[in-house]
Amino acid sequence: MATQLLSDNQRFKLDREDDRVFYRDPRFVHHLDQGFRSRLTQLYRERIPPCATVLDLGSSWVSHLPEDVTYDRVIGHGMNEAELQANERLDQHWIQDFNRDQRVPLDSASVDVCLAVAAWQYWTQPEAIAEELLRVTRPGGEIIVAFSNRMFFTKAPQIWTDSSDQEHLDYVESVLSAQGWINVERIAESTRASGIAGLWGANGDPFFAVIGHRSRP
Ligand SMILES: C[S@@+](CC[C@H](N)C(=O)[O-])C[C@H]1O[C@@H](n2cnc3c(N)ncnc32)[C@H](O)[C@@H]1O
């Protein structure tokens, strides 16, 4: 049983309609700007060895992995079949609403790295998911939770909508730590906007990541 941290109020979303309705139609758009995506791909290049089995949670038509690196296996999870079908990085994928069922249909210790990009913020039961992800991750493996300061406001639970960027980092770290993830690291950086705005010094989407590790026996 996962260690529960959130109150019922903190799990509350303004839009109570089934999430599967919201994600029924594919969105072939970028949810994060070029600066954010470049920083994320750089992080993946530094952190994920090519021999890894990678699990991209809350995926879409893009996974942000470096194009020139071939991983052992990339497994995708998401909410829209057409988006996941279009994601050329995925070797396999499945659809699942984590707000209804948090069980991850993968064997224990079968994944090296779990990724969640702009996805954790929509989970109303993050404790149970973090516990499941620890189960499916091999000893020595890690989880990288990345996000910026944007969201589909009505679909995010109150714990996210009512918090600052700093509090988002604290929150993700606390949930991971409570389920047994260790040596949790945090990254908080600004990015540069692309194009002429960037040349004039404008910022892009801020980059945040929380990285947890599964202990070795
Ligand atoms: C803003 S998109 C981010 C997509 C992708 N990770 C990216 O970087 O473009 C949010 C994603 O969160 C996931 N998501 C949202 N609600 C979910 C839910 N109830 N259960 C499982 N996943 C959910 C979906 O896969 C959705 O595509």
How would you briefly describe this protein structure?
This protein has 217 residues and is of the alpha/beta class. The chain contains 7 helices and 7 strands; from the N terminus they run ααββαββαβααβαβ.
How much helix, percentage-wise, in residues?
Answer: 25-40%
Rg, alpha carbons: 17 Å
CATH architectural label: 3-Layer(aba) Sandwich
Bound molecules: S-adenosylmethionine
Shape: globular
CATH-assigned fold name: Rossmann fold
Query: Which band does the percent of strand residues land in?
Result: 15-25%
Identify the CATH homologous superfamily: Vaccinia Virus protein VP39
Largest sheet: 7 strands, mixed
Low-confidence stretches: none
The helix-strand sequence is: HHEEHEEHEHHEHE
- Say how many strands there are: 7
The spatial strand order of the largest sheet comes to 3-2-1-4-5-7-6
The mean pLDDT is 97
Total individual domains: 1
What does it look like?
It is a single chain. The chain is of the alpha/beta class and 217 residues long. The chain has one domain (9-213): Rossmann fold, CATH 3.40.50.150. Helices cover 27% and strands 23% of the residues. The chain contains 7 helices and 7 strands; from the N terminus they run H-H-E-E-H-E-E-H-E-H-H-E-H-E. The chain has helices at residues 19-22, 34-47, 81-86, 126-136, 158-161, 165-178, 195-199, and strands at 53-59, 73-78, 92-95, 111-117, 137-147, 182-189, 207-213. The chain has a 7-stranded mixed β-sheet. The longest helix is centred in the N-terminal third of the chain and has 14 residues, at 34-47. The mean pLDDT is 97. Bound molecules: S-adenosylmethionine. S-adenosylmethionine binds next to strand 1.
